[in-house]
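Study the following:
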Amino acid sequence: MKRGWLVAALGGLLGIGGAAAYVWTDHAMRATESIRSQPLSGELAKVTAWLDNRLLEAAATRAAEQPGVEDGVVDAGAFDITEQREHMYWALARFLNVEPELVERIAATLDQSPYACTGNPAVTVHPISPAQCAARRAQARVERDDAAVCGAPNMVAVFDPSTSDVLHATVCIDQYEFPNIPCEYPLVWVRSSEAAQICQILGKRLCDAHEWEGACAGNLLPAEAEYSFSVLRAQSTEAHNQSRIRTWLGSLAPLLDVCPTNSFKNSGCGDVTWEECGTNTYPAGSFPECVSPFGAYDMLGNVAEHMNLPLSPEQMASHGGVGQTEMKGSWFAHDGLMPYPDDCRWRAPAWHATAVDSPLSHRNYQLGFRCCKDVNP
């Protein structure tokens, strides 16, 4: 799906050359107008200026490559990935107060990827808009988090309710798929190694598999009960799946029409390719009732999520280690084929398995991530 772009020639004014252009989608334009109407803090002003310069540089380069640009309008095509990323950087600074230096480090990580964004604009069709998401959430009155305990916004505490509580939790999880901001489209086409780097930049880490499962189910079980470190991954996974209690966000029965599980593949999406597979996701948190007992959204449906599967105690992310890749939660489980169960604690076989920090770890059109954070050490 292609959209029109507004191009304003600022090259002569800013000394970048006559072909320079300032490029935004309608969504980013509206967001930018909103923030420009408010007083900017010193840190936010730095981020805004930095992003402006990046956009101008990218627009100048692209405009020089695009023949026949007339009347200030150009096809979306080549601009979208850059614009998607720049909007995300702005949102991280604006809504999560991420410092400029950290935003720049995240940008440096994603600059190495030719694909990481919110979806190939040529084939992606999002079911609803960010504005529609915001309207749904406003009616539901869903705003909450455990920021005081977690030390970061848009995070909630995860624990065993029978033995602990929010104030004594040792781990927190992002409420939304990265960038962890309600009504933003999730970042996809991202490798687990890139996801782990981004989490680390933010003072967080990828979740261990049992932490993600506990956050989804509403009960964090002890690690020693959730892994069989003395056997191979396939055997450990099988034993876990056979003994698990099936739960859907704390419910013992499947949830129907509650979560973003009714997205779809593009008709040409057979093999996983950038050219044919659209990231047809909902904005994060679009389904206010699709929330775990702890307050984490979209753990069933929307994008699948990277996490760390330890094969030994030393490989637990909560111990500073690195295990193998594991993926959970996605609308793909509901696309008519039902390739795997959709409950919180089901653990996948070793699909596309690598070490989490491998530079060749798996990425695809419906795979993103969220972060965890250690607290109360």
